[in-house]
Design a protein that fits this description.
Layout (H helix, E strand, L loop, with lengths): L6 E2 L7 E10 L2 E10 L6 E6 L9 H9 L3 E6 L23 H13 L4 E7 L1 H12 L5 E7 L9 H17 L4 E2 L6 H6 L21 E2 H14 L8 E6 L9 H4 L8 H8 L6 E6 L11 H17 L3
Parallel strand pairs: 4-5, 4-6, 6-7, 7-10, 10-11
Antiparallel strand pairs: 1-2, 2-3, 3-5, 8-9
Helix pairs in contact: 3-6, 4-6
């Protein structure tokens, strides 16, 4: 077990974290933070990557994996959550491959703790970056990929996906800091937060009430990664999970409490099935965008789906 520099985590004992220096990029010094929950006498682990405008706080998910014999590791990516450095532009990225060192750092730490087989898991943009990592330069220890509502396609009308996004992406390659409106609302946050209609506690400094605006460089990073994954290339078994329906602005709290309030589930399905030759798709009725934050009966199905898939794939 790697004991160097671990410190108590904000989630409380037995969670702990370690800061990993990421060197410097175009905006200055960067770092990521790896959080772990160790299971006893096991040599398998899950490494989890959060989504956009997010960080790791899903304690119950980590505990579920530990109870099923997997040590659990999560990474707060550079410029997110625990890894934020004063003065940084939150969530800034120009190429999704920028996150590869952070993902690899979590995998390396899991291996240093004695884990021989690793399952990589990603939510939303974390599902995009983990898929890209597995198609481009995967660590041999990673034996499977779990995707929780991955951001594999834009939730936009066809004309915008086919014309506007490519134009903005091209501009963003050369002028990344041009500001862009995200179009985010508080509706999805309302369905999660214990202070509103949900049941979860999280730090709104790290997971804001409203999706923050992005820039053209962010659009370019997402678009380039999605286009690269159209060719597939993921060699390990994939579990592709998403809700059975999407909510849209104006649908009201009831709709947002039982559907994906961020992405188009039909487009997730279309893109996800092309990731590799061994993709198991699971449609979760009544699921939220982050499926493990759905109401209890729904997330029970999510966990049952995950652990049955792991058993069937012998992972």
């Amino acid at each position: 077990m790697n004991e160097r520099n671990w410190q108590p985590d904000v989630l409380g004992s037995p969670f702990e974290n370690i800061i990993v220096d990421g060197g410097r990029d175009y905006s200055g010094r960067v770092q990521c933070v790896v959080i772990r929950l160790l299971a006893h006498d096991v040599d398998k682990a899950v490494v989890y990557v959060h989504g956009f405008s997010d960080y790791f706080f899903q304690r119950q998910m980590a505990e579920k994996f530990a109870a099923h014999g997997y040590s659990f590791y999560a990474v707060d990516l550079r410029k997110y959550g625990r890894a934020l450095i004063d003065g940084q532009r939150r969530f800034e990225v120009r190429d999704m491959k920028e996150y590869f060192p952070d993902i690899q750092a979590a995998i390396d730490i899991a291996k240093a703790d004695g884990n021989k087989e690793i399952i990589l898991m990603g939510h939303s943009t974390g599902g995009l970056s983990t898929s890209l990592y597995m198609a481009a330069s995967p660590d041999a220890a990673v034996k499977g990929l779990i995707l929780n509502s991955p951001f594999l396609a834009w939730n936009l009308p066809a004309i915008m996906r086919r014309v506007i996004v490519p134009v903005v992406s091209f501009i963003g390659r050369f002028f990344p800091r041009i500001p862009m409106k995200s179009g985010g609302t508080i509706d999805y946050h309302r369905s999660l937060s214990k202070n509103m209609d949900g049941e979860w506690d999280f730090d709104s400094r790290w997971k804001p009430d409203i999706m923050p605006d992005v820039d053209a460089g962010w659009i370019h990073a997402i678009d380039s990664a999605q286009r690269a994954l159209c060719k597939g290339g993921v060699k390990v078994p994939v579990l592709l999970m998403h809700s059975d329906r999407s909510a849209h602005h104006g649908d009201g709290p009831k709709a947002y409490a039982s559907s994906d309030g961020v992405l188009d589930v039909r487009l997730i399905s279309d893109a996800g099935r092309r990731l590799g030759e061994n993709v198991t798709e699971a449609t979760i009725a009544g699921g939220l965008h982050d499926l493990v934050l759905s109401r209890r009966d729904v997330r029970d199905i999510v966990y049952k789906t995950i652990f049955e898939w792991l058993k069937n794939e012998k992972l």
